[in-house]
Specification:
Layout: E1 3-9, H1 13-23, E2 31-38, E3 41-48, H2 51-59, E4 70-76, E5 91-93, E6 96-102, H3 107-116, H4 127-139, H5 144-152, E7 159-165, E8 172-177, E9 182-185, E10 190-194, E11 206-209, E12 214-219, E13 222-227, E14 239-240, H6 256-262, H7 264-275, H8 290-297, E15 300-305, H9 307-324, E16 327-332, H10 333-336, E17 347-353, H11 359-371, E18 374-379, H12 386-389, E19 392-395, H13 408-427, H14 437-453, H15 459-470, E20 476-481, H16 485-500, E21 504-508, E22 524-529, H17 536-547, E23 552-558, H18 562-566, E24 570-574, H19 587-605
Parallel strand pairs: 15-16, 15-17, 17-18, 18-19, 20-21, 20-22, 22-23, 23-24
Antiparallel strand pairs: 1-4, 1-10, 2-3, 2-4, 5-6, 6-7, 7-8, 8-12, 9-10, 9-11, 11-14, 12-13
Length: 622
Amino acid sequence: MCGIVGYVGKRPVVDILIRGLRALEYRGYDSAGIAIFKDRKIEIRKSEGRLENVEKLLREKINFFSDSTCGIGHTRWATHGKPTSQNAHPHKTGHIVLVHNGIIENYIEIKRELMSRGHLPLSETDSELFGFLVLEEMEKGFNLVDSVRKSFLQLKGQSSVVVISEREPGVIVGVRNGSPLVVALDPEGGVILASDAQPLIPYNSEVIFLEHGDLIIGTAEGLKIFDLETGSAVVRPVVRLDWTLEKLDKGRFPHYMLKEIFEQPEVLVETLNGILDRTQSQPYAFSEQPGVKILDQAIEFIFVACGTSWHAALLGKYWIERRAQVSVSVELASEFRYCQPVLRPGVVVVGISQSGETADTLAVLREMRRKGISTLGISNVRGSSISREADAVFYTFAGPEIGVAATKTFTAQMLVLYLISGYLSNQRKVKNLDASSETFAGVIKLPQLLSESLQPNSKMMKQIYNTAMSLTKVRGFFFIGRGYSFPMALEGALKLKEIAYEYAEGYAAGELKHGPIAMIDKGMVVIVLAPRDSWRDKTVSNLEEVKARGAIIVGVGDSDDEDLKMLCDYWIPIAAENRSIDSDLLPFFLAPVVQLLSYYRAVLKGTDVDKPRNLAKSVTVE
């Protein structure tokens, strides 16, 4: 959600802060600002709206900060207080300046106490209050580090904060307790830190993901890390990221989202190679890693996730139960953490999170650990919080995903879950054909087949574009499907809402007659996901029901399914070659269809595809 960048060293700081905040724009924000040391004073430039507004303020004194080498920056996603310049970060209280991510849960009590002592906050935020706490400690004679530490221990809730003071130029102090912070040394001397790794990549690909309760001190001489509670020095592992500047660039594509959709074949290859031991001839042989032992011992799974990851989990339930005959429950993390689940012996709770920082999912894993329940994680980010909260993690290999709407990370999650289903089927010797060499060969062919489907001149691509651009003056969209196509219908509706801001709902096709069909009339578009699988005929029956009520029908199915095509106003074929693989793999071909439909609808409407309103890439607050 909110983004933090800080730097102290020998380079000009303005470029580092602006470039870093630009790299974090994908997280979502509604105001921005930077604070820069100029001699022994701290200058602040901040504004509501986009980062461009801050850059305009900086251009007024383009040479003023040319010799400044220390500062902090922030992009804010409003929680406490409206998205105004006054509420934007950084906040200054006397000689203290700070940026903050997360929520201070006891802010009301803290505000009441501060005001009783004569302090008058200028903003509506909970963040500004922390500055008064630090100020009071420094007025007692403590240095900046001790003051930040003492003040932070008064807070409740998960948050991270970075602080500088005019009394101690050239020193940055940061605390991580929930919301992520990543740090790296500047090879030219100094320290750069951020709430995500992207701003660090241009300077150093060897980074440190701070852990809960870490306090850091950055100076031009280097970095020190301490335990917040005890004040004792700690050592954290250095993680080398294989992300490159090239991967962070849009290249020839107009939007990151489109680039990331087209990267999905490559992502499948990387994830296959990252999960499987390709030296073994046995299908679905996993490489050695701690998570494999937990899979072997599992009697039952509970998947917890949010948003798109929840849709991937639903597919995982279908695959694992059908192929490995292991019971799977799928729960929304935000609901599961507040219910009283029945946890049987042998259950494994699996948290699925693209960023590895999703607050509700992490809270579930922490609670499960407290109860002694085995946990697994599935994430795209090494070193993220999920790697510490779960007993083991299966990583996807999607590389950095900049577009807020998840695309390639969703496909990578799907693949990991599908591979788990094959592995479990083999290990438990389930007597069916799903884990045979033939079906595994279909998995290996997936990247090539998906790449062929995504060729610009393919029938599928042409029809997706023409359909999305031809649908005008519609009241809304229904996505329907059965079996594997049901989670894909949910995902298609979510994508359309996320980036095109259109009314869209996803339904299991058999549920239409139980209420939703009342919404169907001539103004509604029904997108019917009906590839030739065991559910296809039942789905076509539901298509007939909505067609009879005047809906505009968009059919998605096998390219040679002429009967289905005849029933549709618009037709999107899945490439004929895909019929040669197991029907369990059809969701991998439906994914780019629903993603691209939403993408082209967003382009038609002129919305901000990569940075949709009100959304954040990594939801680090409840």
